[in-house]
Amino acid sequence: MEKTKPRLWPVYKWSLSYLRPYRRMLSLVLLFVTLMTIGELAIPKFIQYFVDTILPSGDRMKFLMTTGLLAGIIVCIVLATLAQNTLRRQLQEKSSRDVQLSIFEHIRKLGFSYYEKTPAGQLLSLMNTEVAALQELYRQSFPLLLENLIFSVVSLVYMAFTNVKLTLIVLPCLLFYFLFGPKLERKASLNAKLLSQNRIDENQKIYESISALRDIRASSSESWDFERFLARVRRFNQSMIWTYWYNHLRGTNRRLIYYAGGLFIIMYGYSLFRSNSLSAGALMAFILYFFVTMQKLTAVITNITEQKILIFQAEKLYSFLQITPAVAECDDPVIVDNIRGEIRFRDVTFSYVKGNRVLKHINLLIKPGEHVAIIGASGQGKSTILKLIGRFYDPGEGEILLDGIPLKHMSLASIRRGCGYVFQDTYLTGGSVKENIRFGRPEATDQEVIAAAKAAYAHDFIVNLSDGYDTIVGERAHTLSGGQKQRISIARMIIRNPAVVLLDEATSALDTVSEIEVQKALETLLQGRTVIAVAHRLSTIENFDRIIVLDQGEIAESGNYEQLASQRGLLYQMAGGNRG
């Protein structure tokens, strides 16, 4: 807690910075809120005038004029309220949208290295929980704070003009509230947050129990599972009890101050009335001002407490945005439209963890159009080489050049446009087959999509799906086999038309039949392109121009399949193992 407190103010300023682009809109909102407040607080003054002047005189003309003026003020209040609500809603939603987009953009900037170290659940929690908390600041807490503050200030001015002596009674009421109110508000807010988390835990346990019902029954674990569920229910019920307890307690504290202060005002106001220092109408107006002002002032304190809780959550977002990307584009990057595909490693050394080198002094030249395979035991840095080519990471020492340009000097868009990946695990969206292929180049026409599918040997199975190219593949594409998903991925790469293709064990997870189908699709994709493939099965790379064998992070062997096999070295041993 002590470490967090000094950060609250910068986090709060950062949170409100998303309102800065909408300063004019915020100013109009405040203007309309002020007009509403002045109008609403003028009504007790009309009551005072009615009681003190109109009723004793019985002047019908004054009554009609006063009533007409009051009706006009009410119309103005309604119009100002309508304008304020419209502008406020736009302000809230635009700022809420901006913070969500800024977090999403930063997630994308952090890149591959951050994704590999950070669980997806943590990022989802950041977007769903912390972003939602910050959006609550814009949608509810901050606007209400401004409204209540403006109302309280204007109301105190009205009260002071009505009677200064009675106004001074408000001060000890507020001081008494400050002794207990903020603590109770904070306890209530923290318990409400705990209640929300316990509700999530209970619902999660219900989901787990239903999902695992077959296994639970098969292993006769009903009692064990029920006890775990009961523990979640107890925690939820306990937090519910404490939440309601503190909610009632803070409400009681407020009402005690309202009523005690109101009682003192009535007693002191009566003595002022008896001494002709205060009129009956003024006393009535002041009592109305007192109760509404105390409600607003205590709401301000409640609001500040709730905002502190939100800012504690927002600090995670603030800290997240301070993370600098491990790979950043230079200030004036080189933009290359036509990549030829020459790749050069110059004395490249790389470590994921300091002191544990994965690659050591790699020197390698891959010519445009050359097909190069990288093999080796697990953990030798095969996939790391592909990541470095795509600039998912930067080497610790040395440099990598694409068409003679250091990757650090080239724009990331040029690198990603010129290099295409086919991974072992294919990502397909929940949309249609056509959309998944077009993912490689969104502006592609339907004819280009079909042509790419045919080139990837995917057209025949696609047209036999329930809705052909418009078939929805569903979440994680469970309706498609591994080979079908991989061929859609290859069609996506064909339509994208990259100069460099990086294959990361693209067929290792497929059965023999699927592998043959995917290999035919790959032959189409790889024609005329620079290819670097991480291979698991040597049969898939026998015809490659060159094979690089990695051992202990270094290039141990280099040559075509026949050359390396005749040397009876590492590749020969691996081939013998495969045959065995």
Q: Return the average pLDDT rounded to an integer.
A: 83
| CATH-assigned fold name of the largest domain | Rossmann fold
End-to-end distance: 62 Å
CATH class of the largest domain: Alpha Beta
Low-confidence stretches: 1-6
Helix content: 55-70%
Question: Strand count, sense and closure of the main sheet?
Answer: 6 strands, mixed
CATH architecture of the largest domain: 3-Layer(aba) Sandwich
Rg calculated over all Cα atoms = 35 Å
- Write the H/E string, N to C: HHHHHHHHHEEEHEEHEHHHHEHEEEHH
Strand content: 5-15%
Helix tally equals: 18
Based on Cα principal axes, name the global outline: elongated
Biggest sheet, strands in spatial order? 6-7-8-3-9-10
Q: Tally the beta strands.
A: 10
Spell out the CATH superfamily of the largest domain.
P-loop containing nucleotide triphosphate hydrolases
InterPro entries: AAA+_ATPase, ABC1_TM_dom, ABC1_TM_sf, ABC_transporter-like_ATP-bd, ABC_transporter-like_CS, P-loop_NTPase, Type_1_exporter
Protein name: ABC transporter ATP-binding protein
Subcellular location: Cell membrane
Organism: Cohnella boryungensis
Describe this structure in words.
There is one protein chain. By secondary structure, the protein is α/β, with parallel strands linked by helices. It has 3 domains: 1-162 and 314-326, ABC transporter type 1, transmembrane domain (ABC transporter transmembrane region fold); 164-277; 343-579, P-loop containing nucleotide triphosphate hydrolases (Rossmann fold, 3-Layer(aba) Sandwich). It is 65% helix and 11% strand. It has 18 helices and 10 strands. Strand 4 (397-402) and strand 5 (405-406) form a beta hairpin. Helix 6 runs antiparallel to helix 8 (222-274). The longest helix is centred in the N-terminal third of the chain and has 58 residues, at 60-117. The relative contact order is 0.08. The model is unreliable at 1-6 (pLDDT under 50).
